[in-house]
Amino acid sequence: MVKDVSFIKKCPFSHRGLHNDIYPENSMGAFINSIKYNYGIELDVQLTKDKKAVVFHDEFLERMTGYKGTINNMTYNEISKLRLLNTDEKIPLLVDVLDIVNNRVPVLIELKALGDAIDMSSEVYKIVKNYEGKFAIQSFNPRVLLWYKENANNLIRGQISFDYKDTIIKWYKKLFLRGMILNFKTKPDFVSYDIKSIQSQRIQLIRKKMSVITWTILDCNKYKKASKYADNIIFEGIDPNKC
């Protein structure tokens, strides 16, 4: 089966939606704003205590909601009462976001597999399997990609990574994750790599075999670097058309 991954390279992706002082990150307003300007959407997904797939980046709720707690220790009913950065925006369900997007722009769905990668992958699959728009699953966790390879190989999947220099994990895990050594087994369709190390020989060799996108592009200097070393960008706080 030949997958059409061309959309990965076609339009820049807004990091957690096109958010600003009015629309918080990973909010419905930010996603609608991204659609308005015809940018792809990158978003983050976690599971609530009652296995609802919600769109939220942080492990802890406090930065975005003021509430001290975590997504996976609360039910969706409890989370739905919270508001993002003192606005009227709620933490949205993934299914509702996809309903709003409705194939108007492509979506990169990052699975924040902080716990059980298998549980997370299967729950998200129940939602995306019937979505007819352009989307891809991506994750830092290779176990997510392996699950999709074995259970939903028709879906496009991407491996996210960076250099892991300041990450406190065992050295061999750093080696495996930084070098994406498990790619031979998980068979990603594309790679999403940190702009800081996008120029590395290893990543440029990967780019000869598959599309490579880079994150997070916060200024025009990073945009120029990305234009040289990557096929597309995930951006925030800039207008790519003005770089």
Written description of the protein model:
The protein is α/β, with parallel strands linked by helices and 243 residues long. The protein has a single domain (6-238), classed as Phosphatidylinositol (PI) phosphodiesterase (TIM Barrel). It has ten helices and nine strands. An eight-stranded parallel barrel has the order 1-2-4-5-6-7-8-9, surrounded by five helices. Helix 1 (28-36) links the parallel strand 1 (13-15) and strand 2 (40-47). Helix 5 packs across helix 6 (142-151). The mean pLDDT is 95.
Summarize the structure.
The chain has 243 residues and is an alpha/beta fold. The protein has one domain: Alpha-Beta Barrel (TIM Barrel), CATH 3.20.20.
Helix content estimate: 25-40%
Radius of gyration: 17 Å
Give the CATH class: Alpha Beta
Could you tell me the number of beta strands? 9
Q: Into how many domains do the coordinates divide? A: 1
How large a portion of the residues is in β-strands, by DSSP E?
Answer: 15-25%
Overall shape: it is globular
Oligomeric state of this protein: single chain
Instruction: Classify the fold: give the CATH topology.
Output: TIM Barrel
CATH superfamily: Phosphatidylinositol (PI) phosphodiesterase
> Largest sheet, order of strands side by side?
1-2-4-5-6-7-8-9
Mean pLDDT: 95
Helix and strand topology:
Blueprint: E1 13-15, H1 28-36, E2 40-47, E3 53-55, H2 62-65, H3 76-79, H4 94-101, E4 107-111, H5 117-128, E5 135-139, H6 142-151, E6 157-161, H7 171-178, H8 183-186, E7 190-194, H9 201-207, E8 211-217, H10 220-229, E9 232-235
Parallel strand pairs: 1-2, 1-9, 2-4, 4-5, 5-6, 6-7, 7-8, 8-9
Antiparallel strand pairs: 2-3
Helix pairs in contact: 5-6
